Amino acid sequence: MVPVALENPSVKSALDVHRNLLATDVSHEMVRLPSSILTADDLPRALGVDAGSCVAVRCYTTGDADGRSGFAAVMVRAGDTPDPVSLLDALGVASVRPATAAETNAATDYAASLVSPLCLPAPVRLLADAALGGVDVLYTATGEGGVALGIRTRDLLVASGARVTTLTVQPLAAEGFDWESGAGSGRAEGRVVDLATGRRVRPRRTAG
Question: What is the pTM of this model?
Answer without folding.
Answer: 0.78
